[in-house]
Amino acid sequence: MALLKIARMGHPVLGQIAETVDDPAHPEIRALVEDMIETMQDAQGTGLAAPQVHVAKRVVIFFVDPGRDAREGGRGEGVPLTVLINPEIEPLDDEKAPGWEGCLSIPGMMGEVERFTHIRYRAYDLNGERIEREAHGFHARVVQHECDHLDGILYPRRIVDMSRFGFTEELARALRA
Ligand code: NI
User: Fold this and answer.
1) 5 lies in some domain
2) Quick check: is 80 in a domain?
3) Could you give the CA distance from residue 77 to residue 46 in angstroms, rounded to a whole number?
4) Looking at the predicted structure, is the pLDDT value of residue 79 above 90?
5) For this structure, is 112 an active site residue?
6) Which domain holds residue 79?
7) Which residues in 21-37 are b (16+ Cβ under 10 Å) and which e?
8) Phi and psi torsions of 168, nearest 5°
9) Domain membership flag for residue 3
10) Total of domains in the chain
11) What predicted TM-score, i.e. pTM, was given to this entire model?
12) Is the CB of residue 4 less than 8 Å from the CB of residue 32?
């Protein structure tokens, strides 16, 4: 297990299309995921994609804290730490909603982004088994954010109103006022 260095916005690895993983059950993928988990927990993130640790492969990890889900308008459903390999997302209707996002590759900042509120996603886990889930609200948002990393997209590219992008400290103060 090792803490990995997190790439910050501007590093080319964050703009690449990540490669499909040929064998999700390969021990190298498990070792990568173990390091990603340690790195995400150390950085107190809620999700992390492999390109953020300089590995351009289609692997993401995330979890959803039930309290955060409830605060973000969800049903208070938490999601345990989940590994998605070669994930695919399908929106289940056209509805989108705005919400604040941050990213470990853009430390100290946040922005408001519209995401689909109801999706289905499919992926493989570390045993090579299929995962298929429906997700709403914050859960759906986190999965869309992480999977965007696999296509070289960081959340600022999805911000519609750039006045809703800035340093978390400043925005938090302004939003409280
Ligand atoms: Ni991110």
Assistant:
1) no
2) yes
3) 15
4) yes
5) no
6) 12-176
7) beebeeeebeebbebbb
8) -55, -45
9) no
10) 1
11) 0.96
12) no
Distance CA 22, CA 137 (A): 31
Report the amino acid identity of residue 15: G
Looking at residue 157, which CATH number applies to its domain? 3.90.45.10
3-state helix, strand, coil in the chain (%, to 5): 35, 30, 35
Please give the helix or strand (H or E) that residue 138 lies within, else none. helix 137-150
The span from the CA of 149 to the CA of 156, in Å, is 12
Of the pLDDT bands very low, low, confident and very high (cuts 50, 70, 90), residue 175 is confident
Residue 14 CA to ligand 1 center (angstroms) comes to 10
Q: How far is the CA of 73 from the centre of ligand 1 (A)?
A: 21
pLDDT by residue (tens digit) across 104-115? 999 999 999 999
User: What is residue 124's predicted lDDT score, i.e. its pLDDT?
Assistant: 98
Please tell me which residue in 38, 132, 146, 169 is annotated as part of the active site: 146
6 located within any domain: no
> CA-to-CA distance for 157 and 154, rounded, in angstroms?
6
How many C-beta atoms lie closer than 10 Å to residue 11's C-beta?
14
Structural tokens at position 64: 């959803």
| Amino acid in the structure at residue 29 | I
